[in-house]
Amino acid sequence: MIALESVSKTYPGGHQALSDVSLEINDGETLALLGTSGCGKTTTLRLINRLIEASAGRISIGGRDIETLDPIELRRNIGYVVQEAGLFPHMTARLNVETVPRLLGWSPQRRSERSRELFALVGLDFTTLADRYPNQLSGGQRQRVGLARALAADPPVVLMDEPYGALDPITRRQLQTHFLDLKARLKKTMVLVTHDVEEALRLADTVAILVDGHVAEIGTPKGLRATESSLVNTFLRGGDA
Ligand SMILES: Nc1ncnc2c1ncn2[C@@H]1O[C@H](COP(=O)(O)OP(=O)(O)OP(=O)(O)O)[C@@H](O)[C@H]1O
Ligand SMILES: [Mg+2]
């Protein structure tokens, strides 16, 4: 389980991005963090893998306070799909996917086998795409490479920052279906950031709505939909939070 207990984050300069955020994500479940631009979604992900430090509160994974863990070791157990895919532009798709295995010192043969497996897992043709650079791939393909890279060392936890944000509605829908299939097969503990209500309701077990750095609502997709006054229903009707 990942637990955030009363977590706050004030950036240098004084902007309070998160205030008193408490969340729990059970093993094998997906939490969607839903909210408008600037509400603190990326900040939450970056706190979980210690790219930044909380100003107050506690974050634990599997009962261990992340501050007591070696950050490198911690990040090895957390796959991170960065906003806008964030692939290294000077590396081919395959080298991007092999980033973590290379850091872990896997042999070229083991890396190569794992790449082939991962390309298949995310539905990309290895033969035609492995040696292309990110700018030679479509947005949807880049997104899949980003996911393959995050899954490379089979981490128990995966953080995804607006993975389908920049895609057309049809590709988005296809990748969401793919996500649901992988979710059922891999049973990772995941945090999925999105500003798309329907995506959050479709993909997550629990949806937390962030407004100005605090959790305004949290519940299951079914529970939130059934609550007439929920922000989810306001958003679905096209209203503002
Ligand atoms: N390094 C930083 N220093 C100061 N303020 C920051 C920093 N990073 C983010 N912020 C501010 O913190 C707030 C939350 O940022 P964050 O990136 O978490 O938003 P977000 O919900 O991911 O938004 P988006 O949907 O646009 O990606 C924003 O107001 C942002 O300007
Ligand atoms: Mg963001």
Spell out the blueprint of helices and strands.
Blueprint: E1 2-10, E2 16-25, E3 30-34, H1 41-48, E4 56-61, E5 64-65, H2 71-76, E6 78-81, H3 93-97, H4 99-103, H5 108-121, H6 126-129, H7 139-151, E7 157-161, H8 169-186, E8 189-194, H9 197-203, E9 206-211, E10 214-219, H10 221-226, H11 231-236
Parallel strand pairs: 3-8, 3-9, 6-7, 7-8
Antiparallel strand pairs: 1-2, 1-4, 4-5, 9-10
Helix pairs in contact: 5-7
The structure holds adenosine-5'-triphosphate and magnesium ion.
Report the β-strand fraction as a percent range: 15-25%
Structure summary, number of beta strands: 10
Taking pLDDT < 50 over at least 5 consecutive residues as the criterion, the unreliable ranges are none
Overall 3D geometry?
A: globular
User: Could you tell me which ligands this complex binds, including any ions or cofactors?
Assistant: adenosine-5'-triphosphate, magnesium ion
Structural class: alpha/beta
Helicity, as a percent range? 25-40%
Strand order of the largest sheet: 6-7-8-3-9-10
Series of secondary-structure elements, N-terminal to C-terminal: EEEHEEHEHHHHHEHEHEEHH
The largest pleated sheet is described as:
6 strands, mixed
